[in-house]
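Page 37, continued from 36.
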């Protein structure tokens, strides 16, 4: 047996946790969420979408109306870093706009959107 094989046998093997879909449950171990509480994310609200050519886009002027793919009164999408996490409706609180969440996307659906 060479010196190289002896060192390899003596070194402990790296242990990695489960990275599968149920990794968050970690068999009774608690995850420390405090590690990510200060991570900045982008929260955006999507009223609707429109598709147009660059020619039409360049012809837009103040007062132009762009038709969106949603009906009036339909819920808005709440996106975090581009992933839909909820739907809601616009509310006004103390003369400021806000959103009241009406439906939160399940964890399974969020994971499907990321892939």
């Amino acid at each position: 047996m060479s010196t190289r094989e002896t060192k390899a046998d003596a070194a402990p093997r790296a242990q990695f946790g489960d990275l599968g879909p149920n990794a968050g449950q970690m068999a009774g171990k608690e995850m420390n969420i405090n590690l990510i509480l200060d991570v900045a994310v982008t929260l955006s609200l999507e009223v609707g979408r429109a598709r147009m050519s660059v020619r039409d886009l360049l012809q837009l002027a103040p007062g132009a109306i762009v038709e969106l793919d949603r009906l009036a009164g339909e819920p808005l999408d709440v996106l975090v870093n581009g992933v839909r996490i909820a739907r809601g409706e616009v509310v006004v609180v103390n003369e400021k706009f806000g959103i009241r969440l009406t439906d939160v996307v399940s964890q399974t659906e969020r994971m499907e959107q990321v892939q």
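The longest helix spans residues 3-10. Flag for discussion at group meeting. The mean pLDDT is 81.
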